[in-house]
Write a structure and sequence with these properties.
The chain is an alpha/beta fold. It folds into two domains: 147 residues, 3-Layer(aba) Sandwich (Rossmann fold); 163 residues, 3-Layer(aba) Sandwich (Rossmann fold), CATH 3.40.50. Helices cover 36% and strands 14% of the residues. It has eleven helices and nine strands. Strand 3, helix 4 and strand 4 form a beta-alpha-beta unit. Helix 5 packs across helix 6. The protein is globular and about 55 Å long. It starts with 11 loop residues before the first helix and ends in an 11-residue tail after the last helix. The chain binds phosphoric acid mono(formamide)ester. The site of phosphoric acid mono(formamide)ester has 9 residues, from helix 2. One of its GO terms (biological process) is 'de novo' UMP biosynthetic process. One of its GO terms (molecular function) is amino acid binding. It catalyses: carbamoyl phosphate + L-aspartate = N-carbamoyl-L-aspartate + phosphate + H(+).
Length: 329
C-alpha cells in the first residue's frame, strides 16, 4: 500500500483489511497498551490547510501511539501565508525526511497532486500521502471510521472479517458540499450496504443520479418507510455557500423543520438503529441536542474509533502493505 487518497480506490478486501487492522489497534488500546513500537524512527507530517479538530488530533494521536515522530504544520502561521506554493511546501517536507504526509486542503485533488507529482520523491523512499479531507471531494479515513463504527454496532461479533451486506444507511443533509457523503457512498457500497441520500434538491450535486445509491427529498418518508439501520447526519457547510441569504436555501428554519433529526424522528427508527454525525455539529440546525446526546447516538464513539482507524492506515502504509504492494489503497 502506498497512498490513501480516496474511498473509491479501495477494494472490498482492502477495506476489510483496514477495518480488521483497526479492530486489532482498538484492542491494544483497550488493553491499556497505549504505545506500540511499530513506527519508531519514522516521521509523519500533518499538513493542514483547512481547520480541523477531530482529524488532526486523531492522526497525531494515532502516529504517536505507533511511536512515530510527528510534525504538525498548519497553513496559518507558516510561509503559505506569504504565498508559498503547495509544491515548495512539499519539497521542504521531503527535504526534512517525512515518511508520510497527512494532508487536508480546501482544493479538491490536492492530495492526489501531492502523491503523484514527484514533489515528495518517487523513487527510493516514496512518501505516503493520506488524504485528511480535500475540498468537497473525499475524506477516506472518515468513511473508514464510520464503517468501523457501523460494523461494531450492527454486525455480529463486532463485524471482524465481515462486510456490511444487508445494512441500510441514510445519509442526510448537505450532500452538495460533503466529502464525507461522497466517501461514505463509495465505501458503504463497496462493503455491500444500501445507501439513500436524503437532501433538499438544492443541496444535491449535479450528476448524483449516477452515484451508486438512492436519493430522497423526504426525511420523514425515508425513516418511516425504509427503516434505516444507521442515520448519518451531515453538517450544513455554510462556509462553502455563497449567494443571497448566505446561499442557504431552504432557510435554516425550513431546513430544520424538514431535515433536522429530532426526538419525533428518532422515534420513527427501528430500535437497533444508530445515529451518526462526522462532526463538528450544528446543534439545533441539522440535529437537535436530544438526538445528538440520545442513547442511540454513537457520535463520540466515532471520534474514538478515528484513532484506531488512522493507526491502521498509517501502519499498513508505512509498515505493512503486503496485500497491495505498490498500489494506492
Ligand atoms: N469529521 C471531521 O473531519 O472533523 P474535523 O473537521 O474536526 O477534522
Amino acid at each position: 500500500m502506498k497512498h490513501l487518497l480516496s474511498a473509491a480506490d479501495l477494494s472490498v478486501d482492502e477495506a476489510i483489511l483496514l477495518l480488521d487492522t483497526a479492530a486489532q489497534m482498538a484492542a491494544t488500546q483497550s488493553r491499556e497498551i497505549k504505545k506500540l513500537p511499530t513506527l519508531r524512527g519514522r516521521t509523519v507530517v500533518n499538513l493542514f490547510f483547512e481547520d480541523s479538530t477531530r482529524t488532526r488530533i486523531s492522526f497525531e494521536t494515532a502516529a504517536k501511539r505507533l511511536s512515530a515522530d510527528v510534525i504538525n504544520f498548519s497553513a496559518k502561521g507558516s510561509s503559505v501565508s506569504k504565498g508559498e506554493s503547495l509544491k515548495d511546501t512539499a519539497l521542504t517536507l521531503h527535504a526534512m525526511g517525512a515518511d508520510a504526509v497527512v494532508v487536508r486542503h480546501w482544493a479538491s485533488g490536492a492530495p492526489h497532486q501531492l502523491a503523484h507529482s514527484g514533489w515528495l520523491g518517487s523513487v527510493g523512499n516514496p512518501v505516503a500521502v493520506l488524504n485528511a479531507g480535500d475540498g468537497t471531494h473525499q475524506h477516506p479515513t472518515q468513511s473508514l471510521l464510520d464503517a468501523f463504527t457501523i460494523r461494531r454496532h450492527l454486525v455480529p461479533d463486532e463485524g471482524v472479517g465481515r462486510d456490511l451486506k444487508g445494512l441500510k444507511v441514510a445519509i442526510v443533509g448537505d450532500v452538495l458540499h460533503s466529502r464525507v457523503a461522497r466517501s461514505n457512498v463509495n465505501l458503504l457500497r463497496t462493503l455491500g450496504a444500501e445507501v439513500t441520500l436524503v437532501s433538499p434538491p438544492t443541496l444535491l450535486p449535479v450528476g448524483v443520479e449516477s452515484w451508486p445509491c438512492a436519493t430522497s427529498y423526504s426525511l420523514d418518508d425515508t425513516l418511516r418507510d425504509w427503516q434505516p439501520d444507521a442515520v448519518m447526519m451531515l453538517r450544513v457547510q455554510r462556509e462553502r455557500m455563497s449567494g443571497g441569504a448566505g446561499g442557504f436555501f431552504p432557510s435554516p428554519l425550513e431546513y430544520t423543520r424538514r431535515y433536522g433529526l429530532d426526538q419525533r424522528r428518532l422515534a420513527m427508527l427501528p430500535e437497533h438503529a444508530i445515529v451518526m454525525h462526522p462532526g463538528p455539529m450544528n446543534r439545533g440546525l441539522e440535529i437537535s441536542a436530544q438526538a445528538a446526546d440520545s442513547p442511540r447516538s454513537v457520535i463520540v464513539e466515532q471520534v474514538a474509533n478515528g484513532v484506531a482507524v488512522r493507526m491502521a492506515a498509517l501502519y499498513l502504509l508505512l509498515a505493512g502493505g503486503s496485500s497491495a504492494e505498490g498500489t494506492s489503497i
